[in-house]
Amino acid sequence: MRGWVVPPPKTPIKSSAELRKEREKKVRWLIRDGYLKSERIRDAMLKVRREDFIPIDYKDYAYREVPLPLPGTEATISCPHSYPLFYEPLGLDKGHKFLEVGLGSGYGTALAREIVGSDGLVVCIEIDPLTFEFGRKNLENAGYDDIVLIKGDGGIGYLEMSPYDRISVTAACDKIPPPLIEQLRTGGRVIAPVVEGRIQELVLLEKSDKGVKQKVICRVLYVSLRGRYGMGEKPLRRASPFCL
Ligand SMILES: C[S@@+](CC[C@H](N)C(=O)[O-])C[C@H]1O[C@@H](n2cnc3c(N)ncnc32)[C@H](O)[C@@H]1O
Question: Are 54 and 68 in contact (CB under 8 A)?
Fold first, then answer.
């Protein structure tokens, strides 16, 4: 992983109570720094124990602003602030049918499930079989049994459950994969890290009956999307350090 200094693996020593305090402190920090605004996303971040989605040797770093390695090829659990960074502009809310591309640890999926509630639905696709198994087990252990998990290429979406109200892509692509735009409901939004020259930008796309409109939120740094709409063997392009 380039661009980040990952802390060394170690045997975890922090208690649940210590990690809960760190979680509450992180949420206060995210509110103060303007990342976290809505009540539903705040409640989800207070409820979901991020440490339950992290490989044992990295658990003590659960609330550090650093992506941590996961089983699989180039898979990471993103920094804590990247979840409200995606979900706030996306306007993820109660009742939404939400598609996530890139299950990773399952943490973002669990947050989404809490946010959309029982009136909504979360569908998540992961391309890497090892990562898929890790994320699936984490969700199962945390008691999430109504999330639709698909092992496959998320760039082509999942037509069977479409249309979606909101879509989030957690890996960098050259452009938002067209099938995802097709599977989006009119009035819906997609958010994704998109490579622009030598940098990556977090792009929010809105679909209306007049067409699609895109805006750039900030610079980011994500692992590359794989599969049909992936970036192939191109090297991961570097982003400026201020956003993620
Ligand atoms: C930054 S990680 C996801 C972090 C995740 N949201 C979490 O909370 O842990 C990006 C993930 O996207 C997956 N990925 C890459 N290309 C994909 C594709 N075409 N379809 C589905 N998943 C893909 C990677 O294997 C990796 O697990």
Answer: yes
Annotated active-site residue in 15, 78, 82, 162: 78
- Cα angle value 202/204/206 (rounded, 5°): 170
Q: How far is the CA of 5 from the centre of ligand 1 (A)?
A: 20
Quick check: CB of 80 below 6 Å from ligand 1?
Answer: no
> 190 φ, ψ to 5°?
-120, 140
- pLDDT in tens for each of the 244 residues of the chain? 456 789 999 999 999 999 999 999 999 999 999 999 999 999 999 999 999 999 999 999 999 999 999 999 989 999 999 999 999 999 999 999 999 999 999 999 999 999 999 999 999 999 999 999 999 999 999 999 999 999 999 999 999 999 999 999 999 999 999 999 999 999 999 999 999 999 999 999 999 999 999 999 999 999 999 999 998 655 444 433 333 4
Domains of the chain, each with CATH number or no CATH? 16-220 (3.40.50.150)
The neighbour count for residue 242, using CB atoms within 10 Å, is 8
Residue 73, both tokens? 């090829």
Q: Given 3-state DSSP classes, what are the helix, strand and coil percentages for the chain, each rounded to the nearest 5?
A: 30, 25, 45
Report the candidate in 31, 13, 11, 39 with the shortest Cα–Cα distance to residue 23: 31
- Ligand 1 pocket: which of 82, 127, 136 to mutate (most atoms <8 Å of CB)? 127
